[in-house]
UniProtKB/TrEMBL annotation:
<dbReference type="GO" id="GO:0005634">
    <property type="term" value="C:nucleus"/>
</dbReference>
<feature type="domain" description="PDZ">
    <location>
        <begin position="191"/>
        <end position="283"/>
    </location>
</feature>
<dbReference type="GO" id="GO:0070682">
    <property type="term" value="P:proteasome regulatory particle assembly"/>
</dbReference>
<feature type="region of interest" description="Disordered">
    <location>
        <begin position="1"/>
        <end position="63"/>
    </location>
</feature>
<dbReference type="InterPro" id="IPR035269">
    <property type="entry name" value="PSMD9"/>
</dbReference>
<comment type="function">
    <text>Acts as a chaperone during the assembly of the 26S proteasome, specifically of the base subcomplex of the PA700/19S regulatory complex (RC). During the base subcomplex assembly is part of an intermediate PSMD9:PSMC6:PSMC3 module, also known as modulator trimer complex; PSMD9 is released during the further base assembly process.</text>
</comment>
<comment type="similarity">
    <text>Belongs to the proteasome subunit p27 family.</text>
</comment>
<dbReference type="Pfam" id="PF18265">
    <property type="entry name" value="Nas2_N"/>
</dbReference>
<feature type="compositionally biased region" description="Polar residues">
    <location>
        <begin position="53"/>
        <end position="63"/>
    </location>
</feature>
<dbReference type="InterPro" id="IPR041489">
    <property type="entry name" value="PDZ_6"/>
</dbReference>
<dbReference type="InterPro" id="IPR001478">
    <property type="entry name" value="PDZ"/>
</dbReference>
<protein>
    <recommendedName>
        <fullName>26S proteasome non-ATPase regulatory subunit 9</fullName>
    </recommendedName>
</protein>
<dbReference type="Pfam" id="PF17820">
    <property type="entry name" value="PDZ_6"/>
</dbReference>
<keyword id="KW-0143">Chaperone</keyword>
<dbReference type="GO" id="GO:0005737">
    <property type="term" value="C:cytoplasm"/>
</dbReference>
<dbReference type="InterPro" id="IPR040815">
    <property type="entry name" value="Nas2_N"/>
</dbReference>
<comment type="subunit">
    <text>Interacts with PSMC3. Part of a transient complex (modulator) containing PSMD9, PSMC6 and PSMC3 formed during the assembly of the 26S proteasome.</text>
</comment>
Amino acid sequence: MASHHPMTPSLCHTHGPAPTVSPHDIMTVHHPPSLPPPCHPQATAPRAPRHPMTSSPLRRPMTSSALRHVAAPPLRHRAALPRPSRPLRRWCPPARAVVAAMAQPGGGRPVTISDVQQLVRRKDELEAQIKACYELLEGQKGVGMHEPLVDAEGFPRADIDLYQVRTARHNVICLQNDHKALMKQVEEALHQLHAREKEKHAKDEAEALAEAMSQSQNLPQAFAKVNTVTPGSPASVSGLQVDDEIVEFGSVNVNNFQNLQNIATVVQHSEGRPLSVTVIRSGKKVHVGLTPKRWAGKGLLGCNIIPLQR
């Protein structure tokens, strides 16, 4: 038989009677000295004060920066709040496909008037949405963009719809940022459009000047000039004007012209018959049909022609 250590009691009481437990020991609960029993006065904490409306424990007053994490008040407390005339839609960023497709430095298609008009229409839409958000804020007790959303004690205001107000403020900020960016895009589009129109106008003027110079170089040489034209005369009726340079007068031209007698001879032999007269007017060649005939004035033409000194 194994021997037991003299200081260790045996689990099997082979020697002596078994230990007894009294009913008093069973009903008595021994608590550690560090923890008071449940009936101890220190174990029951005083009840926290309750909110008069929600019956929830009062918490530390919240600051404005903490309101971003606060949900909307319960529906039973929002029933009496003013509702907006129409539901506030969540803001979504505008499409920038129009501007992305516009002419950019180094490539892309040129800006057109329709592109600018589309940007202007988008600007009007943004301004209408911003106005609607401001109207909603005015309907919420006129909170605007900077009025506090907490009361004097630091609690969320119960007289306004916090969700609607915060959503409207967020939409206003986003829409204003988009409006600013859109106005910059409109300005750039107008600048590109006007720059291209200016370049086109300058190109057209250069082409017109080059064409005029080319025509002036190809114009035939004149030998006489119309000095005066009497109103109502055959020359005036035919369309001759002062300072017209005569290139051809019937059969007279720069090659066979000697003096004004050549023109007088042609006029006398062509009385009552139309003559083909070619003049240079403002750098252009103009054909005139002149018919020498009797009229109330002197001569058959009613104009004065002088030779050009070359």
